[in-house]
Every structure is written in C-alpha cells, then in structure tokens.
Amino acid sequence: MNTTDTYKTIDHPGEEVLFKDKNSKFFGYSFPVISEEDVKPIIESLKKQHHAARHWCYAWQIGTEKIKYRSNDDGEPSNSAGQPIYGQIQSFQVTNILIIVVRYFGGVKLGVGGLINAYRTAAQLSLESSKIIEKTIDVKFCITFEYKNMNKVMRIIKERQLRITDQKLELDCKIFISVRKTIANEINDLFSALYEVEIKQVSD
C-alpha cells in the first residue's frame, strides 16, 4: 500500500492529562487545528480556565505537504518547553494539531532538564490520550461540461467511486470532486480524454 497520500491527526480534543514533578503541575491538552487562526482562541480559553497558572506553553503544526509549525516557551527558559512539546508532535508524526501544557509552579525549581522532561511528558501523555486517526491527502478538481455530456461524466464518477463535494447542474454543469493524491493524475487523464469535458485542479 502506498502511504504517501495519508497523514495522521486528531479530529477531537484529547482528554486533559496531568503530570506532577516536585509540586509543579503540568496539564496537557491536544486540539485539532486547520489554520493558524484556530490557535489563539483555544489558548485564550485555556488561560481563562487556568487563570491562576504560571505558564501556558504550546506547539502546533499545520499542513500535510507544506508544513507550518511554531513553539512557544511562554516565559520558561529558552527551548525548555515549546520545543519538547513540538518534539512529541514529530515523534507521533501528527499534523493539524495544537498541544498546550499549562504549568502551575509548585515552589521548587526544576532546572532546565527537569522542565524539558516535564513538558515532553505532559505532551506525550496528551497525545496518548487522544484518538489519532489517518486521513488521506486529497486533490480537488472542477469538471465543466454541457448537460448533454452528463452521462459519460457520471459513469466515470460511479465506476471510480469518486467523492462529489459540490455540483451545479444547469445547462452548463460543474461538478467538484475530491480524489486521493496518488490517483489524481490518472483521474485527470480520464476526464481530459472525454470530448467536450474540461477538468482543472482547484484549491480550497
């Protein structure tokens, strides 16, 4: 099986997890995100929930082929929080995900090594409590044709069990389909070969 067109992610927030070290408490959370704009409201909401906490450190990764990521130490020593959290995102090979670890300081300093271990462990526990799923990387096409050519277009869609995401069926018809990346070229060629039918790739 060719897995170049699949990726791992979560589709629901994971359960809250707790890791303790020398009276400090580290609460770990994981959330599905699909854009950078999703991140800030989630962090703001956790800050309200944990208004007495000292730090809200996080890392996120978005994208399947073009990857964007960021990590934030939120006042902890440099690279002692955000990077260990991001390391777990890489270790579990997940994307479109945000992991936040909320720290309540327990009065005893943990040192950089202790912090790295605590943030990494809380992120790991958070991912272990999440249901990780596999999704396909899809390519979207728009097929344009006159109504009289409907049957030959629909025949290919039915034979290949293609997923229609939208359609406008008038005199001039448009059908939008979503196909797995590994068969995208083949599907493109099938429709391109049809007389009076146009197919072009579209972005979201």
Question: Mind explaining what this structure looks like?
Answer:
- This protein has 204 residues and is of the alpha+beta class.
- The protein has 2 domains: 130 residues, Ribosomal Protein S5, domain 2, CATH 3.30.230.30; 66 residues, Alpha-Beta Plaits (2-Layer Sandwich), CATH 3.30.70.240.
- The chain has 5 helices and 11 strands, in the order βββαββαβαββαββαβ.
- It starts with 5 loop residues before the first strand and ends with a strand.
Overview features:
elongated; Alpha-Beta Plaits; four-stranded antiparallel beta sheet; 11 strands; five-stranded antiparallel beta sheet; 204 residues; 5 helices; Ribosomal Protein S5, domain 2; 2 domains; alpha+beta
Report the C-alpha radius of gyration, rounded: 23 Å
Query: What's the β-strand tally?
Result: 11
Q: What is the beta-strand fraction?
A: 35-45%
Kindly identify the CATH topology of the largest domain. Answer: Ribosomal Protein S5, domain 2
Task: Calculate the mean pLDDT score and round it.
Answer: 94
Family: Belongs to the IMPACT family.
GO cellular component, one term: cytoplasm
Pfam family, one: Impact_N
GO biological process, one term: regulation of translational initiation
